Amino acid sequence: xGGIAALLYGTFCYAFFLATFLYAICFVGNVVQIPGISGxxxxxxxxxxxxGPFLESVIVNLFLLSVFALQHSVMAxxxxxxxxxxxxxxxxxxxxxxxxxxxxxxxxxxQWRPLPTAIWTVTSxxxxxxxxxxxxxxxxxxxxxxxxxxxxxxxxxxQVWARFRGDDIPASTFRTPFLYKLVRHPIYLGFIIAFxxxxxxxxxxxxxxxxxxxxxxxxxxxxxxxLVAHFGQTYITYREHVxxxxxxxxxxxx
Length: 254
Fold this sequence. Notes:
Blueprint: H1 2-29, H2 54-75, H3 78-84, H4 90-111, E1 118-121, H5 125-148, H6 151-154, H7 157-165, H8 186-196, E2 200-202, H9 203-231, H10 233-241
Antiparallel strand pairs: 1-2
Helix pairs in contact: 1-4, 1-7, 2-4, 2-9, 4-7, 5-8, 8-9, 9-10
């Protein structure tokens, strides 16, 4: 029964994440109408709605982004996981993290205050097309990168499936498939590309892009500290050879 409950819970968390993630893509890209799905309209995007008082909107948006950042930073740390798994079974620890992350993301999409003043507007059709293509390419890079490192483990499904089958939860291994030989963090690179590729960059979108990009680099620092502690010299050597974000030639001429 415990295995069935874990599998159902993990599946629900993943489904909720997937729905929230897809909605967030439309939210960030101000995609109101889904192509090919007539009658389905995205109810709220980053720049939609009636603007409120400027300072209040900035404070609310910064608070929402801080909730998201703190949730990710705290719940991802090994010290927190060690305490957390005393209350939450290890098989659903990752699914619970995914659930809380999805709730934090949903909160942003729900409560975001629009700041629609345009910082830049690309009126050239070719320029706008390039930025739109980059936007979708960024999200595609995020998705592909998750599958390269095991998408289903990253989002907790592999763990609950192992619990359902009565198998041991698979230990994490260090691998550098394909894109990970070019940059250490292709998922974060995809997010940065998607967040900044906007033909119309509103003040609200700029605030979102600046804060999330800053958090990405803070997150990389914390994540790599944990990876060095876990994998030791293996990760240190990898870090010495492969650049963090930009796919530049191998470091130290190697």
